[in-house]
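Posting for a labmate who doesn't have an account.
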Amino acid sequence: MALGLRRRLLLLLIGTTVPFFLLLLGESRARRDEAIAAAQAQAADLAGMAADDQERLLDQVRRLSRGFAQHSAQLPPEQCVDDARILKASQPWVSNIHVVRPDGSVVCSSADQPWSNYSDRDYVRQAFDTGRPSTSDYVFGRPSNRVIMGTAQPVFASVPVAVGATDHAGAEPAKPVLVVMAGLSMDWIEKTGARFAHEDSLFLVLDRTGTVLARLPERGDLVGRNFKDHPFVQAVLTGTADRGEFVTLDGVDRLVGMATLPGSGAHVVVAVDRAAVLAPILADQRRTLAFGGVAALCALLLGWVGVEATVLRGVVSLRHAVSRLGAGDRGVRADVAPGAAEFGQLARAFNDMAVALDRHERDIAQREAQFRDLTEVSSDWFWETDPQGRFIQMSQGVSSLGVPAAHFLGRTRRDFAIDPDSGDFRAYEECLAARQPFRNLAYSLRGEDGVPRHVVVSGKPVFDEAGTFLGYRGSGRDRTSQVAAEERLRLLQSVAVHATDGIMITEAGSLEEPGPRIIFVNEAFTAVTGYPREEAVGRSPASCRDRSPTRPRWSGSAKR
């Protein structure tokens, strides 16, 4: 369906605002991506800071254990207990301090009695077996039953030698007689997480198996449970990236940063709600789009008013002038408004065209009048047929045949021909079938008085611009008088040829010597004079008389 000018201009105005909105949307998308990347980077940095905090605290616990092993572990039990309690009180991140024998029984401890047996702790057995310090994964401590990371520092009966050395050549390394146990409590995690966490964030610690060791904000239904099959936990445990976007254990889509806690294989996760990060971006995007929409609407209204005043008004005026010109009003002219610029030029061009068209049509009308005058006074006539050969136009010159022009309209030439089966007429119809021009077709027809009329016609096919055959157009003339003269001439010739008297015909001219030339003699002339036709024609009459005095004399008369 064709669109009007107003709709096309409206589409053009809308098209000019589309890039503006696309630019706004592209900028908003870029800001959203930047916000997501920044939130993920911040979460990864915070997770790395938490891992660094644990490494620093764990190193302090190891140093504390070495110091206690050197100075307090082999004191009498009462003094050892006092030192352990004083040390624990000064270090809030230390859960408890124990000194245990190889069988796991406790010698002294910062905890109240009764004391547990620690022979089942792998990291304790490793310290006794290797004589080297060892560290546990996060485990549930005794007697506090809180998650801790334990350290085991060997204590030797005498001053220990360097690790891997022997007391004498070939001797085994000295075995520890005691082990100092110190636990790093999860209090540091809560303090660190509280520093990082806010209303829309999450702080989470997982051990190497996928068990939740700590979560802030606290969720009692999650801590202590294993989620190794959860896609989010699997991504954390594989450690292929330190950041990403995941649906966490509480079903919220979050932007996540993660890090591995050194020495334990545990993982710390800092995450923030994606919707909360994007909320201000989306709100700003809505405000920007609303402002852009209002601005675009104002631009469209202003553009529409401007186009209506400067373009459409001139177009409508020019269209009305064109319509009136097409309806036949040759005197119509387009208004040329002051300052119309291009439309003024267009209106002046239209007016020039209208003047030229009016002049051209007057010329055509004059020529048509001249042509009609000629056809009316001419003895020839002009005709036109449709594609089926029926006459659709006939000039008045055909009335010289004694047949009115209207008598031919709607009928074919065959309808009038006296002998339509003659060879000439069949050749003419073959030209019509092949749509070829024909010339000098002679045929006879009867007038309204029944007297035969003899005519000769010529014509050519007519086609439109698309090549469609429209019919024939041509002219005709009356040759009835000519045919009658030819008939009389043939009759006179027949009389002269068969006469018994000698007949000689000469050119018109003076009879004085040598006289005019002979142009015709009949057979009787040859019999009378003895001159055959071939010898007589071209001579003068005098030469024919003087040729033989013995031949009979002849006499003649001359007619001019």
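Reply:
Got it, the structure tokens are right above this. The chain has four domains: 36-160+172-278, 330-371, 378-484, 499-546.
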